[in-house]
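User: Here's a structure from my thesis project, written as structure tokens. My advisor, Dr. K., wants to see whether a designed sequence matches the one we expressed. Can you design one independently, without my sequence as a hint?
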């Protein structure tokens, strides 16, 4: 017998949000790790707001905002307005964020207002560090063998916004045949971007993202965004390696893998001063490599060269889900926050897979 095409809505429901989410949903393990990390940084999140004794209207919980920002990355949602719209009717999103079926979803401007607060108190950086701490507790990090690399990030600024600093450009926007340099021009949309090209790519307004990964499972151990120039990659690598050296055991011999772009005498000397073995790919094209031959002939050097490709997977994942292919925020601090949060999301996805592999082998 044919069923009737009718719709009868119940006035009440006795089901929980957990009933609508499959027990084996990929977000389940991720949600558990995120909640653990947020619990560890709860004192920091509480210090971001005025104390209750002063009164005022309660804000949206920063834990919910951070979970929502992670969802935006996981599901390649291009704007906060679209994110809040989907959260309104998506029970999976409500479950991950921590909203009940009856809770009102906040307006998109809440993200804008709280983004500055998270930057001021390093909220995203602390979340990233706590995710790494969870990975370290599970034995998924290798603090001795590291790799470093960088990637170009297209800014949210167009070529027509790149004008002379003294304002002598006309309003036609026709820059064909005109020489434009970073020392004489800047973007009126985002003053932190730089006109930069690498290899055979065209000159674009860009930032540079840098990551330091460990070689055991390819987890990102450090991430930062800088202005785009020819020296930024090596300078950022020095800072990240120095930080990694401080937290490592003194007896550990740290190695650093990198591509040919890092084969510079000053960079290799800086690693030597830090007592880090430079497993940098030798660049012998019409020049002498700064990497000593006895290091390049070692077995560890060969292994570092093989493991270095893991760091590219983080960039590939981040650009596939789109947050850093072309950023939707402006300003170095905001782009850096988005980049670090994206790398935290990437670590969470890899850690979920590592946990599943562990369960299958036990």
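Assistant: Designed independently from the structure alone:
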């Amino acid at each position: 017998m044919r069923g009737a095409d009718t719709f009868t809505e119940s006035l009440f429901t006795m089901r929980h949000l957990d009933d609508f989410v499959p027990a084996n949903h990929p977000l389940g393990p991720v949600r558990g790790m995120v909640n653990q990390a947020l619990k560890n940084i709860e004192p920091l999140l509480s210090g971001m707001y005025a104390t209750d004794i002063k009164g005022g209207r309660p804000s949206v919980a920063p834990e919910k905002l951070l979970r929502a920002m992670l969802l935006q990355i996981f599901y390649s949602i291009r704007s906060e307005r679209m994110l809040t719209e989907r959260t309104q009717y998506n029970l999976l999103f409500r479950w991950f964020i921590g909203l009940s079926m009856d809770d009102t979803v906040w307006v998109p401007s809440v993200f804008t207002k709280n983004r500055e607060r998270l930057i001021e108190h390093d909220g995203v950086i602390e979340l990233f560090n706590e995710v790494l701490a969870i990975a370290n507790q599970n034995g998924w990090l290798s603090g001795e063998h590291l790799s470093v690399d960088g990637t170009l990030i297209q800014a949210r600024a167009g070529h027509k916004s790149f004008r002379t600093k003294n304002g002598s450009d006309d309003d036609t926007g026709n820059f064909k045949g005109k020489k434009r340099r970073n020392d004489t021009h800047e973007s009126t949309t985002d003053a932190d971007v730089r006109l930069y090209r690498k290899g055979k790519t065209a000159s674009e307004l860009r930032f540079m993202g840098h990551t330091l990964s460990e070689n055991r499972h390819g987890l990102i151990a450090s991430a930062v965004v800088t202005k785009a120039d020819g020296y930024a990659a090596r300078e950022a690598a020095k800072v990240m390696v120095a930080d990694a050296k401080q937290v490592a055991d003194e007896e550990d011999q740290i190695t650093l893998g990198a591509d040919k772009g890092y084969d510079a005498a000053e960079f290799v000397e800086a690693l030597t001063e830090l007592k880090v073995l430079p497993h940098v790919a030798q660049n012998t094209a019409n020049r002498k490599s700064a990497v000593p031959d006895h290091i390049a002939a070692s077995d560890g050097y060969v292994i570092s060269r093989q493991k270095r490709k893991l760091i590219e997977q983080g960039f590939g994942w981040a650009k596939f889900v789109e947050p850093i292919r072309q950023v939707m925020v402006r300003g170095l601090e905001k782009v850096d926050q988005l980049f670090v949060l994206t790398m935290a999301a990437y670590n969470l996805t890899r850690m979920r897979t590592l946990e599943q592999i562990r369960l299958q082998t036990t």
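When you compare it with your expressed construct, this may help: The mean pLDDT is 90.
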